[in-house]
Here is the input.
Amino acid sequence: MAERSFKAEVQDLRKGAGELFTGEGILAITKALLENGVGYVGGYQGAPISHLMDVLADAEDLLGELGVRFEANASEAAAGAMLAASVHYPIRGAVTFKGPVGVNVASDALANLSSSGVTGGALIIVGEDYGEGSSIMQERSHAFAMKSQFWLLDPRPNLPSIVKAVGDGFALSEASNTPVMLMVRIRACHVTGQFETRDNRRPALSVAEALDAPHREVGRIVLPPMSYAQEHDKIDSRWPAAERFIRENRLNEVFGPDKARVGIVCQGGMYNGVMRALQRLGLADLHGATRVPVYCLNVTYPLLRNEFAAFCDGKDAVLVVEEGQPEFLEQAFATMLLRAGSGTRLHGKDVFPMAGEYTGAVMLDAVEGFLRQAAPDLLPAQVLAPNTEAPAIPDLSQTVPVRPPGFCTGCPERPIFAAMKLVQQELGEHQISADIGCHLFGSLPPFNIGGATMGYGLGPASNGAFDGGKVGGSSKRAISVIGDGGFWHNGLSSSFGNMAYNRSDGVAVIVDNFYSAATGGQDLLSSRARNRSKATGNPISKALKGIGIDWVRQIDRTYDVARLRDTLREALTTDAPGPKVLVASSECMLNRERREKPQRAAAIREGRRVEAPRFGVDEAVCTGDHACIRLSGCPSLSLKRLDDPLRDDPVAQIDQTCVGCGNCGEVAEAAVLCPSFYEARVVHNPSAWEARLARWRRGGIGWLARRRAARRLSFEEV
Amino acid sequence: MDGCFDARQTGLVKLAIMAVGGQGGGVLTGWIEALARAQGYAVQATSVAGVAQRTGATIYYIEMAPAGPATPIFSLAPAAGDVDILIAAEMMEAGRAILRGFVTPDRTLLIGSTHRALAVSEKMVPGDGIANAEEVRAAAEVAARGLVLADFEALAVDAGSVISASLFGGLAGSGALPFERAAFEGAIRAGGKGVDASLMAFAAGFDVARAGGVPAPDRTPPARPAAKPAGPADALRAWDGLMARVAALPAPACPMAEAGLRKVVTFQDPAYGAEYLDRLDRVLSADRSEGHELTRQAAKYLANAMAYDDVIRVADVKTRAARFTRIRSEMGGGAVMQLTDYTHPRGEEIVSLFPARLGRWVEARPRILGWIDRRVSKGRRLRTDRVRPYLQLWLIAGLRRWRRGSLRHEKEMASIETWLAQALHHAARDSALSIEILKARRLIKGYSDTHARGRSKYDRVMSGISLVAGRDDAADWARRLISAAMQDETGIALDGAISTIKSF
Here is the structure.
């Protein structure tokens, strides 16, 4: 079960013709898939399309009613491969993952799929994770469309346009026998809005029906000589067919006056940003009327030579608004203009920065810069010569601390990194590689553990060169960290298969938090929860044994810092040959709290006995060194300044958000820090006997305390 | 030729929310969106979900305009210099908003919570690394067109709710949106979760913003009158005698000396307080500093040094009568509360309690010391709500009577004498340097390894100071050494500063 439940939103997916849908872009896409008679859906979670996977999982009943098959694919490669169903069968299929990392993983399947060509519409919905808030390397998925010759849709970022693009994508795919990628940027995935719904449609041919009547076409197999023919088919028939479809159905849009000396060409996803810049320059209004013509590319691959030429006709200059690098569109347009011998000047990355997100400020500066060069007479006087001077605002760059993401309150991964830090204090610094997932936060302060991440499931593989370890003549072993998500995504084969086969002497720590946690808490093969339609409960350690890794230590409570430290030390020092693997398992606290908090509240309400633990710090004992924080970083473990003139440094303090995970106490104990920490466990609805016993104890303790207080000077307020 | 459209975009409202992941920025966004839609506005909200929501800085963005026949084209992200309302759910996030240019004098109303959620980089510094909120407040006063600053977190917690509700109230109370209060409350009711608590927090936020939106003065707690001493009559008489000595000190040093006296008397007894004042008198007689700053600083650091952190003190603090009551009220009451104290005594700490001669004898024999350590050193969790574990601590606290004969006490007193002598050595010529030497004592703190690390930093600082003593800027260098020592755990910055000094 995922972090967020979409049970309520799923009801919106049942809406029929003429009703109004209100919600997030990503949910609108889901609804559009059903309206377009999709036959199977799948994908792999990851921001910004995790919600699409979550809502599909929550909508299994509805999907079942419509005869739609849903797969929570093991990886993006598996998702891409699933589109093979549309190669031989006229079934519409859609898969989703994040780009460009998911496209990287899927690219093998996508290249084969593109070469084969499709019969049914095949749609790849990519959440392009670029710009602010992105968690990955900054690249473009665009290149994949160019190299494999599939088509790329980049619709305007509003719900009706995105919904329309889903239908257009399927139709374009079928008209050109080519898979289509629908790219939705990070903010467009979460943008809210409304659109008018249509009735859901059952697939014309369901996967169940296709399975009963198998079909194959030899010409679609990627093997010579068919593969040579497929390349020619792409260029000679699929591409022209796509161009025809795009032109005839006007997938691209032109806004503004027919005649003008300048114009703007933009990716569909950039349209709103372009319009805002024009609005701020007084050249457009809020509802889309503009004095500068805009050629909006809802299809960014392939580009239509004639459409572009018609737009440029009569214009002195055009500006290409294309986010990211390299500037594929601009290069293609430059070639077109050159070949046509056109006199229209081309602007783009000369006024825009080559790298980075096109934020509002970047867009305004660049559009204004373009117009100053190409058509200064269009700009209002206020823009050309502003007469107000901006006041100087104090510089806060040295004041405001950075706030990168980190482990949540009570996160079970925190003690793993605390233990690793303690081991390194004993045995020295080690070569440590990381993977993809929440555990990558361990590479940030206060832990600073791990220096490389090479991709999902590739943590241990990225230490391959160091696999020799002590056997290879070093005095140390390399350590790699990988999550349970990465393990099942690609890790078992690419990382642990690699370690086992090469008789690695390295150490791997598998952070098993029962979910694919960083992507929103989706279930996995090794999840402990029972899942209605998926096979969970398969231990990671069993899989490791299966590929011949024998030195496996299963730790079922990661908060036991001392045990983790000792086990890790053993892994680094033992003489045992082969890979040494620690499986450190405790449930993701975010998911655990989401599940248990309501249960706890209900139990307290109903009068059942509940223990509620929380930690605290004796401020008189804490000396303000903050060593505990350097082994934690927990949001609930913070500092407070004391109202005491004798104290210089703020002391540690634990606020009411503490979930009582125990890390503070364990770390204080394992690292021999200080005796400041205590755990207070309030017992709700105790039994009468328990309450009486507690009273007696308080009586005895109180007598002792009072006895001593009476014999000394004290200043306590009572 | 001028543009024919309205560049100010009248009617369009651009609202950004900057928050820390987990603060409920999404809930607040949802309310605002539902409110605007219910009031006949076209509205669009966006956010960047994903890993940033795991405790990192997050941003939500909303645009709205009166609905008409045509659909407005909204932007998906806030732009520098183009935000009408900025809601910051934490003080440094308000600073980040200003830093990013989202708060500008021509248009932005800033609604900010003054409370702090400290970033890891602020918390992990061995000294005081907390960012200066006053700088953000000062910048906000320049940068914002209108300002509502209040502790919205406290308002929410007091109402049993979360900050999204009190900020929503602040937004309503600011009058920045053309909607009635009831419409805001309607959005909360329509949300359907924790409605009553949310409405209470909403009302608190509303009132604060309605009260003017003038920057609230710094909420420093009013100075508490010092608690009256209690105890046996002879001890109280002794206390009065000590206070008379404090009153005779120069006025600037008095409050600190009184605080220091309370600390050392609580640590040991009135006689120890007399020792404290004797030492302070020695400092005073050598004091040539302006305003008796040397004596004032000595009153502070001498008290901290004399009330050193030994096992007896820890046990004493943890067995005080008021402690259990205080913790229970902090934890929200309840008839039964179990209390577990996490301790990890080591052999050295136990041996340091031995009578000085015996302790020295043991310390000189590593094998015996090791044997003791093996018996003692392990994590011990004491259920101090139970009588037996409490009694253990109570008995240790009772060793206070014999503390003065312990090895630890002997060492601490010797250390204090050396330190004071070093400080007073410069008092006649360079009292600024003397003061810095006193302040260096701040470095010795913590327990076990932390204490050893602090001690080593202190020794390095003192040796650094001896290199610069006699220079005109010696005190400046001493100050630099101390602040370098507070910067990181192992003292990398300190070593850098010392090697700079050595290069003179």
About this structure: Strands of chain B lie at 13-20, 41-47, 57-66, 85-88, 109-113, 146-150, 336-343, 380-383. Confidence is low (pLDDT under 50) at residues 214-219 of chain B.
